Amino acid sequence: MSRCSYDPAGNLVSVVNGPAVTVRVLGVSPKRAAQGSPVTVLGSGLSPSLAGNSVSIGGVAATVTSASKSRLVVTMPAGASGVVSVTAPGGTATGTAVVQPPVAVPVVSGVSAGVAAPGSTVTIPGRP
């Protein structure tokens, strides 16, 4: 950011450059997200325009659906797992939090025997 000074006639007399805006990734939520789910990235130095930010999760590009100077919402891409990186006009930053797909919960669909003797085989069908 720059600060300009002008004389009474409107002529530029000086320019003082301020510190550059640094992009930072401060947090990510949730830590586990299914493909197509929203993931919120909190940070600083982000662009308030959707096109002004580029986000990847584990190196896979994520679509930015909402943007402000301190918060982005992206869609969890297929096959993504890893740290979040953001590129905005002020540079690129990578967070420390890892976003992963949800853990599959096994589903039991039945039991082969309602009662079984000790040592006998019982089959429990289901899916992972």
What would you give as the CATH superfamily of the domain at 21-99?
Immunoglobulins
CATH fold category name of the domain at 21-99: Immunoglobulin-like
The N- to C-terminal Cα distance equals 54 Å
Q: Give the low-pLDDT segments.
A: none
Would you write up a description of this structure?
The protein has 128 residues and is mostly beta strands. The protein has a domain at 21-99: Immunoglobulin-like. The chain is built from no helices and eleven strands. It has strands at residues 2-6, 12-17, 24-29, 38-44, 54-57, 60-67, 71-75, 82-88, 91-99, 107-108, 126-127. The strands form three sheets. It has a seven-stranded antiparallel sheet, with no helix packed on it. Strands 1-2 form a two-stranded antiparallel sheet. The termini are far apart.
Structural features:
128 residues; mainly beta; Immunoglobulin-like; 7-stranded antiparallel sheet; two-stranded antiparallel ribbon; 11 strands
